[in-house]
Design brief:
Length: 606
């Protein structure tokens, strides 16, 4: 009997241990998977922020090569490739523009790929005279109008990202404008820590990384065609590519996987990896986190689960032995419950701390991205905010005069202006992208809407506005809001020039010439000095005091007019012609708008 009882107890003991092992395995595995899933979500968000930061850093300089086609010295150098004086003038302009824009290098190439002028023309290793026809960014720009490329410089051995834009004279390609931008600042933000970050290009070569020893490592063996392409384009210059020993071990799903990687001569380390494609580049960004903390979380959870199982077994044992020591069993149960509560409190506190740290990291990354966008927001909202203030003051005056219709008109204009500010804070770089299908834009309506934003400013300054020279039905194809943006910028600049002038006058006229429409904005101000006029369309150049302008207004306006198929130019009038200056917009003409379909704008005009 005793032998049978002992056997039963032994079997029960083995069963209890087996059940405890199962509970610990299930609890530890669940905790490990939960921690990995939480990290995967965070890594996805962090990689999205890193991707946005990289895209923002590249977009900051995307527009620089396009501005070169607006400067006369660039066009002169390309039209007269053998003229040393014109090349020297272009060198000086590129050097000055590069210092203001903060790019790495700016240079011009003729149609054969030879460098005619460069911002580093003074440097011992200048680009001037080099043959860069083998570079893909030049070939793409010459064929398709634009080109992008990442590579190592063959002159100075420094890696960078290249932007290239073809400069045309009609259908003829005069040459290519190129900008080289360093991405080292992005890597500096990826300072080594618990996590590792790297970006691999389309060939699988690491071009950006938080671990310097991984730079130019190959995540996969290059095929013979890949080697041939890299050699012909000299993409990696004289850099020796080395294998990066990445071993794929397990696919965890949802873009996460387990990999093993060795750093220098250190032992192989297992990582949890998350990879995402970077749109428009062919690159892939990978974020790595050591696997040991996740495994440690699983072990801790298994321990907690085991303790819970032990507690349960002890409770059952205590219930079975209650007839022998009821009070002792209750005391043990209370003690074990207190221990369990302490463990749960610790787990809860640690989870809350991890969540707070994650939220703080996400917030910091969001603020970093918003900081890069602040300059554009300030410039775009400057004029609408000033116009909104004027319209509110105007409404107050009309209210005191008991002119409700005028008050309603000003409130309606304020509403449209607020809507416009909302659209500005959405796509801040809308001037760099094409709009949808063009629609007929009535010149008279666009001019009236733009003037309405400046109504109070015009009234206070006593400026006489003459817009009688705009035919009712005259129209151009495009986007009315973008045309109003250009006119508003020109009107605002004219009012700045008319400050403290006697009998100030602003004249707007438009006429159709063949299949074109010519719009002129003229003032009788002091005019623009020749040295200032030569730099009007340079980015970041302004004569306004600090805080009142970024020097981007005319650059943005010229870009918008260019996208509408036109040109924007300036000339100063002589004293015999009345003085002041004239800005001329030359745009394609649209079919005349029938008078029966015209609805006058519901806002006050000057």
């Amino acid at each position: 009997m005793r032998t049978g009882s002992f056997a039963v107890r032994l079997l029960v003991g083995f069963a209890a241990l087996a059940l405890l092992a199962v509970v610990m395995a299930v609890g530890g595995g669940w905790a490990e998977r939960a921690a990995m899933a939480a990290w995967g979500q965070r890594a996805s968000h962090v990689s999205e922020l890193y991707s946005a930061g990289l895209e923002s850093a590249l977009a900051k300089y995307d527009y620089v090569p396009k501005t070169l086609a607006l400067h006369p010295s660039v066009l002169d150098a390309l039209r007269h490739p053998g003229d040393g004086a014109r090349a020297a003038t272009a060198n000086q302009y590129l050097e000055r523009l590069n210092a203001e824009a903060g790019a790495g290098d700016l240079y011009l190439l003729d149609p054969s790929g030879r460098v005619l002028a460069a911002s580093n023309w003074r440097a011992p290793l200048s680009f001037v005279g080099m043959d860069l026809s083998y570079r893909p960014y030049f070939q793409d720009a010459a064929r398709r109008g634009e080109g992008r490329f990442y590579g190592v410089g063959t002159t100075n051995g420094r890696p960078g990202y290249y932007f290239a834009v073809a400069i045309r004279d009609g259908d003829h390609v005069l040459g290519v404008a190129a900008a080289k931008v360093s991405l080292e600042r992005i890597e500096e933000r990826w300072a080594p820590g618990d996590e590792r970050v790297f970006v691999a290009d389309g060939l699988g070569v690491v071009i950006l990384t938080s671990v310097p020893s991984w730079k130019f490592g190959m995540t996969a063996a290059l095929s013979e065609p890949m080697w041939t392409t890299a050699s012909l384009t000299r993409q990696y210059g004289a850099v020796t590519l080395k294998p990066l020993p990445v071993e794929e071990r397990e696919d965890r799903g949802d873009g996460a996987r387990v990999v093993a990687l060795a750093e220098n001569d250190a032992p192989t380390v297992a990582y949890l990896a998350h990879t995402r494609a970077l749109p428009g580049t062919g690159w892939r960004m990978t974020i790595l986190s050591p696997l040991d903390p996740f495994r440690q979380a699983g072990r801790e959870a298994a321990l907690v689960s085991g303790l819970g199982g032990v507690v349960l077994l002890l409770i059952l044992l205590a219930l079975a032995q209650r007839h022998a020591a009821f009070r002792q069993q209750m005391a043990a149960k209370a003690a074990l419950q207190r221990a369990n509560d302490v463990l749960e409190e610790r787990v809860t506190a640690r989870t809350a701390a991890l969540c707070a740290a994650q939220a703080e990291l996400i917030q910091k990354e969001k603020l970093a991205v918003l900081g890069q966008m602040a300059a554009g927001i300030v410039h775009e909202l400057n004029q609408p905010l000033a116009a909104l203030r004027m319209m509110i003051d105007n409404a107050a005056v009309f209210l005191r005069r008991e002119q409700p219709d005028a008050v309603l008109d000003n409130l309606a204009s304020s509403t449209r202006l607020v809507d416009r500010m909302g659209r500005i804070t959405g796509p801040l770089r809308s001037f760099a992208h094409r709009s949808g299908d063009p629609v007929p834009c009535r010149i008279q309506s666009c001019a009236a809407n733009a003037l309405s934003f400046l109504d109070e400013r015009i009234r206070r300054a006593g400026v006489r506005v003459d817009k009688a020279g705009i035919p009712d039905t005259l129209a151009v194809p495009g986007d009315p809001e973008r045309l109003e943006q250009v006119l508003l910028n020109l009107f605002s600049n004219a009012l700045d020039a008319l400050a403290e002038r006697e009998a100030p006058c602003l004249r707007v006229s438009a006429a159709r010439v063949a299949d074109r429409v010519v719009i002129e904005v003229q003032d009788n101000g002091p005019g623009i000095p020749p040295d200032v006029a030569a730099r009007l369309f340079e980015p970041f150049f302004t004569t306004k005091p600090i805080g009142q302008g970024l020097g981007l207004g005319l650059v943005i306006s010229a870009a918008i007019v260019g996208e509408l198929g036109g040109t924007l130019r300036h000339q100063s009038e002589t004293p015999e012609d009345g003085g002041g200056c004239v800005f001329t917009l030359d745009l394609p003409a649209a079919d005349p708008i029938p008078l029966s379909t015209i609805k006058e704008p519901q806002c006050p005009t000057a």
